[in-house]
């Protein structure tokens, strides 16, 4: 944990495991924005299964994810990612279920992590909201999701650190 670290509260109302969330938040402070975007997209891709059936194959979703991935390797601009993110946000209004809308919000925040690193944590929080909707009153499911999120983030951080050591 970094000196002066203070866990923030989720910007949405969710039943959560605050201990694991604070561990996640501590680890996010050690990673670059590109690394956080990569993690957020891992969460978003898991959320894809909950998008409404009529929207799952919508080109705008794939193009938005592609825009973020291209931004991570400097092949797309922040402007292009913002445009793609706005298209996903527009899809939320057309969602036919609260679960589908929550999944699209998770994806939207993950894509937006390209231009604000804090949005990666918002995507993770939205993933927890999705668990709250799909498995109501199930603290074990929430803890399992937060543990999975932490493991994905920690694994990404470890792989990056190993790669940096090989470069030196």
UniProtKB/TrEMBL annotation:
Residues 28-154 form the Imm-5-like domain. InterPro entries: Imm5-like. It holds the Pfam family Imm5_like. This is Imm-5-like domain-containing protein. The lineage of its organism: Bacteria, Bacillati, Bacillota, Bacilli, Lactobacillales.
């Amino acid at each position: 944990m970094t000196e002066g670290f203070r866990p923030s509260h989720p910007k949405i109302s969710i039943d959560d495991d605050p201990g694991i969330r604070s561990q996640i938040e501590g680890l996010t402070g050690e990673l670059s924005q590109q690394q956080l975007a990569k993690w957020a997209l891992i969460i978003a891709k898991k959320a894809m299964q909950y998008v409404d059936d009529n929207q799952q194959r919508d080109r705008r979703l794939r193009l938005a994810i592609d825009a973020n991935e291209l931004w991570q390797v400097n092949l797309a601009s922040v402007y292009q990612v913002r445009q793609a993110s706005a298209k996903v946000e527009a899809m939320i209004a057309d969602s036919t279920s609260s679960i589908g809308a929550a999944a699209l919000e998770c994806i939207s925040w993950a894509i937006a992590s390209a231009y604000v690193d804090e949005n990666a944590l918002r995507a993770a929080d939205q993933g927890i909201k999705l668990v709250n909707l799909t498995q109501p009153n199930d603290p074990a499911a929430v803890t399992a999701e937060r543990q999975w999120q932490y493991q994905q983030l920690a694994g990404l951080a470890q792989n990056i650190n190993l790669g940096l050591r090989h470069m030196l």
